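Case study: Nucleolar protein 56.
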Amino acid sequence: MKNTYILFELASGYSLFHAKEMLQIEQLLQESTVASADFGRFNAMVSLVSFAPFTAADQAIENIEAVVKGQVTEFLANFLKQQLGGSKKDKCQLGVADVAIGQSIKADLQIACVANDTMAEITRWIRYHISKFIPELSAADITQAQLGLAHGFSRTLVKMNVNRSDNMIIQAISLLDQMDKDINTFAMRVKEWYGWHFPEMKKLVNDNVQYCQLCIAIKDRKNLQDPAYLQTVKDIVGDDDQAEEIVKIANISMGMEFTEADFLNIESFAKRVVTLTSFRKALYTYLQEKMNVVAPNLAALIGEQIGGRLICQAGSLMNLAKYPASTVQILGAEKALFRALKTKTNTPKYGLIFHSTYIGRAPKEHKGRISRYLANKASIASRLDCFMDEPNRVFGEVLAKQVEDRLTFFETGKEVPTNQEIMEQAMVAYQESLGKAAKKAKKDKKRKREEGEEAEAGDDDEEAKRRRKEEKKAKKAKKAAEAAEAEAAAAKAEKKKEKKKKAEA
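Here is what the predicted structure looks like once written out:
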């Protein structure tokens, strides 16, 4: 009978136990919880063979990641080779808690592994008695190590991938929809408020932002009697005739008079609406950029906003990629779907994709067909974006062309190329785009290297100039010092001559 060893993973390292009598152990485990909780009896049947502690927290995280994936690290392989290597591995079997790690150990190290209920139960009681098996590790130390490893491992799970940050798209599209409602509500409030003073302007200016800008610029309608205000109004509305009409109507308006405080409050609120509108434009630009990075094919096919709403409704790009085309087709129409199922009427033909331009351009009798076709292509695009290593817009543009061709086919009956032909062309275009991107990256790298060399050369030139200046200064200082010494020596010699003359006299 083969010797049975049990591999036990700790937050502090790997440990190996020897199960001496498997039949007695099974009987002990079946007897009662009290019997297994007796460390003396349990230790007589299961003993510690070796313990290999991790040297650093990074090593612990690396090993726990590998164990979760069912992989054998170099550290674990060396530990098992040291303890069960050579002729031992043919005479023993290794009990493990997870089937996946057992399969990897068997494949990499040729050690027979067992993962069953008995091994799981033994592992449970080893964990219960571990602080007694390894006295150096107190219960507090084990808990602290587990806590630190849990935090470190959790951080690795939530690492942000910039190219897959679909949660940013979800937040952006949700905020964009909310801002559209808020801006419309606030603009209506400005119109109603300022309408008491200049009610006719509501009919002359339909754009909400222009209306708020005019409220800020005009304030009191009597100001429009000043010719200088006419140009300001023209700049805002962008139409000379409309601007002149506003000025003309302002002179005969039936609105009530406002105080200065009223105008200040209206102006402040109108500025908020204009600021929100500017932020909304910036947010939409941000959404476009994110969609072109995260889901370029979906954006090229169906647009940034509808693509973002599909991702938001699905919960993530991964979820959207897993959905069948039939689900993508009615995504966003859940209420109508369940109502139809409850009342046993026709189910909806489209959900969020109804807002696509393709369905709007399709004839009424073909809207259902084009919605199915579009949902199919959107499902393909989302899968390409989710699972390709380097997604770009090539396939999305090809899929969009296919939808356009399908619309033309419904209208004229003109034959379109097969899907296989189109995809073969798309693959060629994709490979070419990857080649161009690689060349561009190479050129950019070369340019940066050259710029760095030029900068270094420039730094060297500056250093040489500075050195030459210092050398010149040193030479000048040396010459000045020599001249001063010569003058001092001449003065000293002159004094000696004078003393000598006086002595002779």
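For the exam, be able to explain this: The chain has three domains: 3-157, 193-285, 295-431.
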